[in-house]
Amino acid sequence: MTDEVLLEARGLTKSFGEFVAVDGIDVLVRRGEAFGFLGPNGAGKSSTMRMVGCVSPVTGGRLRILGLDPAVDGAAIRARLGVCPQQDMLDEDLSVEENLWVYGRFFGLSRREVRARTDELLEFAQLTDRRHDRVEPLSGGMKRRLTIARALVNNPEVLLLDEPTTGLDPQARHVLWDRLYRLKREGVTLIITTHYMDEAEQLCDRLVVMDHGRIVAEGSPRELIEAYSTREVVELRFEDEQQERHLGSVEALAERVEALPDRLLVYTADGDDTLAALHGRGVRPLSALVRRSTLEDVFLHLTGRSLVD
C-alpha cells in the first residue's frame, strides 16, 4: 500500500427523488489497499459502488477516481477499472474462454493479446481444464471465478467487487478469497462491498461501516473491534425463564450485556474470569462459550439486529 490516493470522495451524495441512498460520505482509498464497504441491505453500498464505477451520476459532493472526475472522464476511468457485479452477467451460450475473448475485445485488445491474457486468467481462476465448456452448467463458484477473471482482462488498477461471494458454499468462498489475496499482493487495489463479517476481516485492510446511507465507523477490522466491542464475549444459555432471573447478576460483572431470546451475550475483557465470577455468584447456565470478539459484534452493535427491507 502506498500514499497515492486512487479514490477520494468528499460529501458524496446519491439521491433517487426524495430518497437519499448515500448521504454525504467521505472516503479515501490508497493504491494497493483492500478497502471495504460493510453494511446491511439498503445501507448505500451498491449505490456508492455504482458511482465509483462511473455508471451512476453523482448527486452531490466531490468524487475523484484515479485523479479524474467521473462526470467528465467516465470513459477513461472505466478503461482502468475492473468490475465484478453482484450478479454473474456471463454469456451462458459461449464457452468459458469465449467469454474472456469477447470481453477483451471490448477493451480494444488485439486477438493475440486477448488469447495470451485468457491463458493467464484461466490459470489464475483455476479454470484451464474447463476452457472449452459452456458456462451454463458450471457451478456457482466457477462462474464467480470466471466473472472476476473477466473483470481482470484489461489489467485494471482498481478492482470493484460488489458482494463477491454471495451464494457460494464455504469451499468456494475460501478459493475466491485466495484468488483476491493474490491480486492484492500483485498490487491491484480492491474495493469490496460485503455483508459477510468474516470476509471483511479476511480481505480488508480498512473498511467503513455504512447504515442508512451514512458512515457510522471507519478503521481496520482490529481497530473497529477495539473501539466498539470488548476483547472477548461470553455466550450464556439458560433453562426456560432462568435468563431473566440471572440478568442482573450478569450485568453487574460485564461491560455490556445483550439479551437475545435464546441467550445472553456478555461483553468483557476476560471471559474466563467473568465466567468464574458468575459461578461464584451461583449463576449456572446450561452452557457457556467464551470466544473472541469479532467484526460481527461491532456490526450488530452499530447497525442493530432488526431486518431492513
Automatic annotation (TrEMBL):
Belongs to the ABC transporter superfamily. The lineage of its organism: Bacteria, Bacillati, Actinomycetota, Actinomycetes, Micrococcales. It is found in: Cell membrane. Pfam families: ABC_tran. It comes from the Bacteria. Coiled coil: none annotated. GO terms for biological process: response to antibiotic. GO terms for molecular function: ATP binding; ATP hydrolysis activity. Residues 7-237 form the ABC transporter domain. This is ABC transporter ATP-binding protein. PANTHER family: ABC TRANSPORTER ATP-BINDING PROTEIN, ABC TRANSPORTER ATP-BINDING PROTEIN NATA. It is a peripheral membrane protein. InterPro entries: AAA+_ATPase (IPR003593), ABC_transporter-like_ATP-bd (IPR003439), ABC_transporter-like_CS (IPR017871), ABC_transporter_ATP-binding (IPR050763), P-loop_NTPase (IPR027417). It comes from Phycicoccus endophyticus. One of its GO terms (cellular component) is plasma membrane. Keywords: Antibiotic resistance, ATP-binding, Cell membrane, Membrane, Nucleotide-binding, Translocase, Transport.
